[in-house]
Amino acid sequence: MGINFAQAVAVHGDALQLRTERTRILAANIANENTPGYQAQDMDFAAVMASNQAGADGAPPLDTDNGPLYRVPYHPSGDGNTVEIGVEQAAFAQNASDYQTSLTFLSMDLKGIAKAIAGQ
User: What share of the chain is helix, strand, coil (3-state, %, to 5)?
Assistant: First the structure.
């Protein structure tokens, strides 16, 4: 009998992939802070995660049916850029912390599997 790792790591593998994608989006926002007309984007992590979990009928991971979400700036700039560096840095830091948490849970799952294989 083989081990189905996708089932064994459950939700934590999907969460890690989504956190990685959100990191990419937030990093792009920070990189384009001074690009005129750039629209800051984000993803609704909970909605995409729920969509992935409900998509057990064969939906691919990172199925972002909702599309990108655009931030509404607190203080709009004159050049049309909606990136506010403080907001982006806070979101990036929170996402990094959440990524580390997901990674810790995934590591604990894999250690448990290793102990089960070793018969401990």
Answer: 60, 5, 40
* DSSP conformational letter for 14: H
Backbone angles phi, psi at 110, to 5 degrees: -65, -35
Which residue in this structure is represented by tokens 């792009």?
A: 28
Walking along the chain (120 residues) 10 residues at a time, the average pLDDT comes out as: 64 88 96 96 90 65 64 90 96 96 88 82
- What is residue 80's DSSP assignment? S
CB of 102 within 8 A of CB of 22?
no
CA distances from 21 to 2, 43, 49, 82, 100 (A): 30, 9, 12, 20, 14
The domain spans of the chain are 11-118
As given in the structure block, the two tokens for residue 19 are: 């956190």
Q: CA-CA distance, 90 to 104, in Å (whole number)?
A: 21
